[in-house]
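hiii so my PI (J.) wants the whole complex modelled not just the main chain, which honestly fair. so below is everything: two entries, each one labled with what it is. i double checked the lines twice but i was tired so who knows lol
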Amino acid sequence: MKIAISATGKNNSSLIDMRFGRCEYFQIHDVESGEIKIIKNEGQMASGGAGIAAAQQVIDAGADVVITGNLGPNAYRVLKSAEIKAFKVTNIPVEAGIRAYKECQLTEISTPGKAHQGML
Amino acid sequence: MNIGILSGKGGTGKTFLSTNLAHILGANYVDCDVEEPNGFIFLNPTGIKTFEVKVDYPVIDKSKCTMCGECVKVCQFNALAKVKNNILLFEKLCHACGACEVICKFNALSYKKRTMGVIEEGKHNNAICKRGVLNIGEPMAVSVIDQLLENLNDGVNIIDCAPGTSRNVVNSLDYVDAAILVTEPTEFGFHDLKLAAKLIRTFNKPLAVVINKYVEGEEKIHQYCTDENIPILGVIPYKREVAKIYSKGEMISDIDEYRDIFMNIANEVKAVFVWS
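here's the output for the full assembly
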């Protein structure tokens, strides 16, 4: 299983980015193999549709689960259609987020947040 | 003669000047601030006719689509996404560029039309008043602005533009022969005046300035205009009474005390932009 995490940096101690569409990186953690892949979020610099572009990258990376702060309406629709579950965290380090997910302490994002929140 | 009224900063008095100038000159009025057009509140045009503004959006024929995802890759506006066995469309993000239709090898894409706003047209005295109204939630105003400005009437048109120096404003400038910048003696007003002046200069169009909410002793804008060789068409004093009348939706130029200010500005407009 692969977990995609919106992150401010490239390693385990980097903080999780509260923004999904406008986050700096996606860290794709393969739970079984322990392999970590870093993707630069192309949505970050998009003039519009950042959440859609970001969600597409996460899908293309083969993620099964997303851990992030907030999901806008468009990103929410894309991930839901792709049957990828998203879980909400506060801004904690990536490794703490993954641990919390494994211990089933995270709540699933079941409604989209506000649009353009990551631009504030 | 199409005169654009711009400001840079919002709330400096574009609609205030536009409606009063159109009123005094007997000119046509075009409200291009389609995200919140409010010039009609003051000009009160009658006999309003409404025209729909339509834009293209792609439709995918699922019987032909092979889910190759080329349309998603080619879209520069992130209006398409590929998930499972479906292509998702975010129609409001579509610029109708046609790239997805061209790239599709299976002819699965075609374009349909949808309504994203309206144009309203009426009359104030003998002048034509038009405005674009973008539907709520629509992120792109350009199609409404284009349709509004593509069919300008003969004579003098006062074009009330959107604030800022965004694409909406740039788009309006394509149709403008000359521009008036309305500003106010505040730091923000002055800062954005310079941005707007720079924008108009890149279009090589004649420009002039009107200072609204003018307070004596605040001469920074005068100095800037002298240095930059930009004519000042007039100043409108900063007065509580002016704001009060405006807040009631009344025409300030109908009031004796203020009529001359706008008459003088109107005469200066004719002198500076040279038309009879």
